[in-house]
Task: inverse folding
């Protein structure tokens, strides 16, 4: 059963990444040839030279690379699990959880990316001959195929909670939730005077001082870990509060489904960033390593930018640092602009397969 679930979800995730790559290849290549507006009396400007256009397409390119590396990792982990001679219950459960979370993340990403690419191509994006409409129609079912995405994220969240129970064999699910709640109280010290905890934590976490470069990879990894751990531990605290009120474990978990989904999404983001970071570090050749590193940074910072309200609410980012993140995302997009054509060419989609007339210089 596990093999069937993981195979199916890995296949859907891979197909979603492939569709995202096709849509981005069409939109980026069109942006590199289509000119629109410009200074009076001068040649019109290429679409992809507009910062707003870069901000629409290039973070999606970075996220698609992250999803691609995540799918590669999932397939490799599945192959190892199939050949493992010993019973590896925890590893198999983690594999199933990652497959569920990655399938949800990749299909949500494909849905958002293809729609954005349609809009980025203007009226041409809505013509059937340019394939974006077909890509959208073909992939929308993926968000429910092999499991509704929200349900899969709940499955992953429950798996993450279970990992704590497995560390303590005498714990049942109720005790797991209480353990997590205790972990929150001990690590976050919520009983301290208002603001005292955050002041101490801000100084303790590497890379969170105002003088630290927000483009440092350690800062990105720490931010993603902080969010995942905080959300997961907070989920345990909320469940414990309900359990202590006499509610059953099933209803206690169900009441906090939104928080569970947020914790699961944060976990998938962390897994993707860790994998992307490894690939970038191991890349051969200075130019390739630099390009993948810049893409990895854009993926991380664009995700932080999307969720900067949460990071500010929980003391990880000050208002000033939040503005630095937004600025850095724009700078990274500008740095990647000259490489945009190469980045989508690296998807390896032949023109005959891409089959979109707007990608061909007329």
Result:
């Amino acid at each position: 059963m596990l093999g069937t679930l993981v195979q199916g979800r890995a296949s859907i995730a891979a197909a979603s990444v492939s569709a995202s790559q096709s849509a981005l290849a069409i939109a980026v290549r069109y942006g590199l040839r289509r000119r629109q507006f410009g200074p009076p009396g001068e040649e019109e400007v290429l679409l992809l030279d507009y910062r707003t256009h870069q901000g629409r397409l290039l973070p999606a390119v970075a996220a698609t690379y992250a999803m691609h590396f995540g799918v590669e990792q999932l397939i490799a982990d599945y192959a190892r699990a199939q050949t493992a001679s010993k019973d590896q219950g925890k590893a198999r459960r983690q594999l199933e959880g990652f497959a569920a979370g990655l399938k949800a993340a990749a299909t949500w990403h494909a849905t958002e990316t293809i729609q954005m690419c349609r809009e980025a191509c203007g009226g041409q994006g809505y013509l059937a001959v340019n394939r974006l409409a077909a890509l959208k129609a073909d992939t929308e079912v993926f968000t429910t195929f092999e499991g509704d995405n929200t349900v899969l994220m709940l499955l992953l969240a429950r798996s993450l909670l279970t990992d704590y129970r497995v560390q303590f064999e005498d714990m049942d699910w109720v005790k797991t939730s209480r353990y997590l709640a205790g972990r929150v109280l001990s690590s976050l010290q919520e009983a301290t005077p208002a603001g005292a905890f955050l002041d101490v934590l801000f100084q303790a976490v590497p890379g969170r001082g105002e003088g630290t470069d927000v483009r440092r990879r350690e800062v990105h990894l720490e931010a993603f870990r902080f969010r995942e751990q905080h959300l997961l531990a907070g989920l345990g605290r909320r469940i414990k509060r309900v359990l202590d009120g006499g509610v059953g474990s099933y209803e206690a978990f169900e009441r906090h489904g939104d928080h569970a989904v947020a914790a699961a999404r944060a976990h998938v983001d962390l897994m993707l960033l860790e994998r992307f970071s490894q690939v970038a570090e191991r890349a051969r050749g200075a130019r390739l390593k630099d390009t993948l590193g810049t893409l990895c940074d854009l993926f991380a910072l664009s995700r932080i930018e999307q969720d900067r309200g949460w990071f500010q609410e929980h003391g990880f980012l000050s208002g000033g640092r939040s503005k630095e993140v937004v600025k850095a995302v724009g700078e990274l997009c500008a740095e990647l602009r000259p490489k945009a054509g190469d980045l989508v060419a690296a998807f390896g989609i032949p023109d005959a397969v891409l089959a979109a007339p707007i990608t061909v210089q007329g």
